[in-house]
What does this fold into?
Amino acid sequence: MGLLDIEMVPIGIDDLMPNSPTEHNVYIRLSADRFVTLYKKDSIPSSEHLHKYKTKDIDTLWVEKSAMITFVKKNVTLASLASRSATVANNKKAALFVKATDSMFKQIEYCGMTGKTYEQSKSLAESFFQYAQDNQDVATLIDSLNEFDSWIVRRSILVSFFSVCIAMELENIGTTQIKSVSVAGLLHDIGLIKLPKNIVTRPLDQLTNEEMQIYKTHPDRGRELVDGIDAVHDDVLTIIHQHHERPSGSGYPMGINKSKIHILSQIVATADEFSDLLLKAPHRPRVLPIELAMTTYIENNESPINKSISRAFGLALKKRMF
It folds into this structure.
């Protein structure tokens, strides 16, 4: 079988560990359908060799589709270990969270959502759960995330983190539900990977009516991606599907009102709206300081999604800002 017959998927050049044996063949892409082997399996790429490619603005390498899960598993494991370490700096933890989330999203985009991928998502969400439990400084996390490019990745991490922070402050929300909002917060926008790139990467106010209607299908597409996987809890499916619903019924995709929006969906929706004010994105190139973002969030909402959630969020932020 030639290279043209093998499906290739991209990985970041930083997914390779310098001075460590590669577990699979790694390729460089010369054209749309031409790949050449950069490292054979068990080769040991040196730091100098990898740096040389980075200086040439090569930040993406390629592996065979069957090898992708190995790189994702390694990145998720590193993020998990870092989240539990008192000696790893917060900005380094954020970098590992981004690396793991980015590779996992690439796997879902190119290989689909499988039971193994979902288990990796749960493991990664556990890292954010651990990070939130340790009362880490939220300002440092936000500043670190804004140093990276992919806004979907950055936002997914912050929404998961904020969702956990809110849920931990609410009475009658148990550990199982907190873990549900953690993984659902991570995957809440996963349906966006199934939309055309020219829609996802543009500011929302620049989309045509037709394009906006396509954009509004991403909660449906996200639910479809994870539905049918045995390990997925019903709460996770509901949250992914409802995270853009609003109390007045003005949200999407179903236009349901507050009485029909699950409490866990309301938590993730709150985290999602607030994260939007703090992270750079195609539709928001400038971000707000966290104190001003909280004031803006309260002033701009038609009404708080849920007063107990708003109070819990305020308490959670206070613990992590001072």
About this structure: The longest strand covers residues 26-31.
